[in-house]
């Protein structure tokens, strides 16, 4: 088995108090639960229980013979400490962190991602059942193995659009690098003349789709803000709000290079990058990191604008990742979807977690070449 996802959680009632942890190992493509672990661990703190959950999840992944692990937790402290960005100051956590680090060394690669608690419900339910046991309470029901407790019950019934948060996702207009087939990550490449024409046409299209818009959000790079300003103008002069989480993937050493130049100069690195979203371009950022910030950005918009429409102007990678997650698709989706410059996609998100993708890469509004 090459790769798994570990979701882990832990907690205590009282901090310190009756404590327990839960961990779930999933198949990264299907989401199927492969193993569960949970245990009541007496009286201790939240942080100790969270580390114990991570350790149990990594041990379970090792039992399955996994080579790569994506560890997901809603504990910012554990994720940041295990990623090496925060120091481990509390002496009681150092042995646990060392134990987790020793397990990490058994795998080819381990990445750590923070997720909101609602995306970690299965591990959270296992941890709460273990805390009940530690406190001597009757056990509570835990989701059945093989099910995803964050999933919404499938339905074909119409849903009222007035209760959904609608995202209109717009890729920025064309730049010279777009036309030349170059990787354009963090370099601030401006719109070309054609790109400005596309932005103007897209502004008209978005105003037709959604005359009432609550906010216009943009990547901070100028090719996006210029496109967003054209759209905001067509919507009556709304302010454009730059959001760093919507910026393009950092392509590192490949930025500004053509696809052919990257294939010639970095053939092995390119193959590895195409094979796994956990691999970063040399000096750049993996898609797992982009996906994490896009998920955070989408969640923030859903919570801030319930039942309203928001326009987001961004880049190929963030929009693809948002659509991948909305469609519950595998990573293969990223290589099979093409997004044109100034293409428009649209999705609705309901309060109960339901999602409907209404359009992908609409380009009927764009001027012909």
TrEMBL record:
Amino-acid positions noted as binding substrate in the UniProt annotation, renumbered to this chain: 223
Annotated SUPFAM superfamilies: Phosphoglycerate mutase-like, Ribonuclease H-like
Residue ranges with Gly residues bias: 11-20
GO cellular component assignments: cytoplasm
Residues at the active site: 172, 248
Annotated region (Disordered), positions in chain: 1-20, 135-159
Residue ranges occupied by any RNase H type-1 domain in the UniProt entry: 1-140
GO function terms (MF aspect): nucleic acid binding; phosphatase activity; RNA-DNA hybrid ribonuclease activity
Pfam families: His_Phos_1, RVT_3
Superkingdom assignment: Bacteria
Protein name: Probable phosphoglycerate mutase
